[in-house]
Prior knowledge:
The complex is a heterodimer of chains A (344) and B (179).
Chain A: E1 3-7, E2 11-17, E3 23-29, E4 32-36, H1 39-47, E5 52-55, E6 58-62, H2 64-72, E7 81-82, E8 85-86, H3 93-105, E9 114-119, H4 130-143, E10 147-152, H5 153-161, E11 169-174, E12 179-185, E13 188-195, H6 199-210, H7 214-223, H8 238-265, E14 276-281, H9 290-301, E15 309-314, H10 321-336
Parallel strand pairs in A: 1-9, 9-10, 11-14, 14-15
Antiparallel strand pairs in A: 1-2, 2-3, 4-6, 5-6, 7-8, 11-12, 12-13
Helix pairs in contact in A: 5-10, 6-7, 6-8, 8-9
Chain B: E1 2-6, E2 12-14, E3 19-21, E4 26-29, H1 31-36, H2 38-46, E5 49-56, E6 68-69, H3 77-87, H4 93-118, E7 150-152, E8 156-160, H5 163-178
Antiparallel strand pairs in B: 1-4, 1-5, 2-3, 5-6
Amino acid sequence: xxxxxxxxxxxxxxxxxxxxxxxxxxxxxxxxxxxxxxxxxxxxxxxxxxxxxxxxxxxxxxxxxxxxxxxxxxxxxxxxxxxxxxxxxxxxxxxxxxxxxxxxxxxxxxxxxxxxxxxxxxxxxxxxxxxxxxxxxxxxxxxxxxxxxxxxxxxxxxxxxxxxxxxxxxxxxxxxxxxxxxxxxxxxxxxxxxxxxxxxxxxxxxxxxxxxxxxxxxxxxxxxxxxxxxxxxxxxxxxxxxxxxxxxxxxxxxxxxxxxxxxxxxxxxxxxxxxxxxxxxxxxxxxxxxxxxxxxxxxxxxxxxxxxxxxxxxxxxxxxxxxxxxxxxxxxxxxxxxxxxxxx
Amino acid sequence: xxxxxxxxxxxxxxxxxxxxxxxxxxxxxxxxxxxxxxxxxxxxxxxxxxxxxxxxxxxxxxxxxxxxxxxxxxxxxxxxxxxxxxxxxxxxxxxxxxxxxxxxxxxxxxxxxxxxxxxxxxxxxxxxxxxxxxxxxxxxxxxxxxxxxxxxxxxxxxxxxxxxxxxxxxxxxxxxxxx
Lengths: 344, 179
């Protein structure tokens, strides 16, 4: 049985298909908070059915409760991934990731089961080590008994959302750690890159400008911000919502400028015969009216945009689009009976 | 003697040898140290330390003589030098230069062949559908073990219709056929 696992800075999402052709989605927030391993704390976690890992003298609260607890104690939740790749210097990260992957992916039930996992594209604005990240996840997924195959994160979105355009699209994944962009034409990648700003950057920037913490900004953002009307919601947090909206706009404009510049650099090597859709996806794109907000930003530079866009639309299931695309690619490959796989 | 490699980001205390192994640090221990150290054996079994090689020492292990690798096929460097010298006919330096110059295309070609055979499982393509062999992490990627960790984790689970996936898969296969 093929599987696809989206390894995101904020969530790990696994998609698999059962015998009844239903797609199973399993997800967990990859955040953790470490505490001293004390019997009372452990009992409390057990009783409240909180996700945790116990490792010798430490307890790690996992997932959403880690963010909630971090907010209560005015601490920052720790992340195994930072800006799309394994967090450098986060010594517990790999251990936690290992446990989380095993939980959402499970062990392979048959030999040569294929598991596609997402990897970011090289960043245009930051030195980042994708090679180590990719090798580490290849090893972690392989240890669970799968044939691990890496696929570009944004390309996976086109696999799950651009069938009607014959897998031709400009797919943009607005993630927590970064924005991944891929221009794909009939499964051929014309251009793929990432920028090292995403939801976390919005949280950090908004927190800095309002004297708050990034965890608090994230929490306000996730409770819901209407990008076309920041005044909607709790009056006590209007300043934070306004700041979040400002940085959303900045992020979108930065992404659009980067697309324009990167395409211009490759001009002459990419020739698109038809207009392609822009497909928006990712957790950061879940904000209310994100598509309309994006359209507004796009229209302001439409005349200067270097290739024709047929429409702008949201991915069918923005949080799970990558995992589902990875599943499509994995099923396609397993169906071909081809030994996987090459890294893109 | 044995040579080990630190495979964990954490520093590994080998208490019974009064030693520390850092990440990616190579260390040599005598057979006696290796066999007697429970800490070292434990760390190797946990995967935090990797056993790289076993050497046989010439005479006393403290004599400073260079160790010989016994678990790998090895050749003495002097033997190699001698063999190379013997295989080259006595020629004057000018002639030797000429000969080497003539050999360059052959050397380049053999290197190219060697490289392409090593990279045989990587094909350069812009097609995003992966095609060739499994990419596995290099061996130096540290082993991550969650052994001994107790977990209470319940991921969020939900079920969605698989129709979209099947439609996408069918479209993908149609596209592949038409190509």
